[in-house]
């Protein structure tokens, strides 16, 4: 009953299910439902929810789907990042998560949070660094090669770029 989010760019619900094999391999596929898109970034954030007893202050792990409107809840999060240049999979199953890779070194980072924002800060500062400011000329229009049914549609896109005086590289 875990709540995992992340594991790279994929077309999937925000919360990852507990019966999912997440392949992390930047394959650039045209129909990527439940598959990787362009980025291969094996980081996940896990958030656990706890109900707080109003009389004692004790916290009880909450794994249900129906929360009480007048209940008091809190959450705690942690994150894990596996830095590896090879293809890999994360097998999410009801009893846990298994990571497997086809080679390379294993640089495993754990971020203890305890909040989601703290996990993100620890991840950025401790593992990947802050994003660099991009040069002005890199901001522009980008066209994906997928989604065109035929050459006529592609030619129409190219013609529209030209009609609007927007540069387009081949």
UniProtKB/TrEMBL annotation:
Catalytically driven reaction(s): Hydrolysis of terminal, non-reducing (1->4)-linked alpha-D-glucose residues with release of alpha-D-glucose
Keyword tags: Glycoprotein, Glycosidase, Hydrolase
Domain Glycoside hydrolase family 31 TIM barrel: 131-169
Enzyme Commission number: 3.2.1.20
Record flagged with keyword Glycoprotein: yes
Superkingdom assignment: Eukaryota
InterPro entries, sorted: Gal_mutarotase_sf_dom (IPR011013), Glyco_hydro_31_TIM (IPR000322)
Hydrolase listed as a keyword: yes
Family stated for the protein in its record: Belongs to the glycosyl hydrolase 31 family.
Name of the protein: alpha-glucosidase
Organism the protein comes from: Cryomyces antarcticus
